[in-house]
Structures are given as structure tokens and as C-alpha cells.
Amino acid sequence: MNTDSTDQRPINVKQGKHDALTERIIGVFYDVYNELGYGFLESVYREAMRFALVQDGMKVDVEVPVPVSFRGNVVGVFRADLVVDDAVLLELKTCDQLARQHESQTMHYLRATPIEVALLMNFGPAPRFKRFVMDNELKKRRHRSVESATIGVKSFTTPEMIS
Asked: From the centroid of its chain, how far is CA 18?
């Protein structure tokens, strides 16, 4: 009787968006970190990641311009460090530790694109990453505009203020 199990997942494990791709990207991240170590500029790690991801058979776009819209008008453009297989956005950092603003920045980048998965990767003293998922349906609901109410609020330039 053969009791070897081959790639059997527990029944209750749910697959996430682009799990297989993010696992490959994370593997490349650790390979790059282990080869280069800590202390280089972000641009060095970005190019090393691009090279290693392409070498691993993935399509990689570098510093992808992503417009940010407000009420139908473009109000700014950010540049995503890397986009892999048009499916996963990579935001790279080289700091001592990831901070709340890095997470917020990554979430804002996801909101501004049709991409639903992002990896925030830090080439700091210890390699760290965080995975973010934002479903496009959630983005549609979030972008509905809301009329603001002015209940009981006087205009800033009322006649009483001018006298």
C-alpha cells in the first residue's frame, strides 16, 4: 500500500487571487535578497528583480505610469515599481522596517489600477513582504460619489463677517 501523499491540500484551504504567481514572485524576492543582501538603493533591487523575474519566465513592466483620477480628471500619475504578468503590482522598499504609510501607498496604487493583487517588498536588514488584495468590485463601490450636505453650516463669507 502506497501512503505517499502528492500535492494534496486540506479541503478547507481557499485559493486566493494569483496565489501561484505571488508564490513564484516571493521566491524570486528571497533569491535576490540572498544574493545581494542589504544596503543597496531601491533602483538596484528593482533591476535585479526585473532581471530575475524575466529569467524565471514572467513578463515584467518597469515603472509603469498609472494615472490617478478625481471626479473624472487626471490629478496625478504614480509609477508602479514593477508589474508582473499584468496581474501583480510590486512596490519595493529599502528601509529598516515597513511603515503604515508604505501599506497605504500600496493600497492607493491598487485602487488606481485594474490590478487586484500587490506585494509590498522590503529589502531591509531582514527581508519582509506583505500581500494586498483589492477586488475590482470593491473599487467600483468605493468610487461612487456622495453629495455633501451643508446642514446648519453658514458660508464662510457671510454678510455678518464682512462688517
From this structure: 13
Cα separation, 49 vs 94, whole angstroms = 13
| Pairing outcome for strands 88-93 and 117-123 | parallel
pLDDT at 40 over 90: yes
Predicted pLDDT of residue 135: 87
**Which residue in this structure is represented by grid cell 463677517?**
161
Whether 10 shows a pLDDT value over 50: the answer reads: no
38: left (phi over 0), alpha (psi -120 to 50) or beta: beta
Alpha-carbon Rg for the chain in angstroms:
22
What is the Cα–Cα distance from 57 to 71, expressed in whole angstroms? Answer: 39
Q: How far apart are CA 122 and CA 29, in angstroms?
A: 9
Q: CA-to-CA distance for 92 and 43, rounded, in angstroms?
A: 9
Question: For 19-138, which CATH class?
Answer: alpha beta
C-alpha cell at 142: 468605493
Task: Flag whether the pTM goes above 0.70.
Answer: yes
1 burial via Cβ count (<10 Å: 0-12, 13-18, 19+): exposed
Query: What is the Cα–Cα distance from 101 to 21, expressed in whole angstroms?
Result: 25
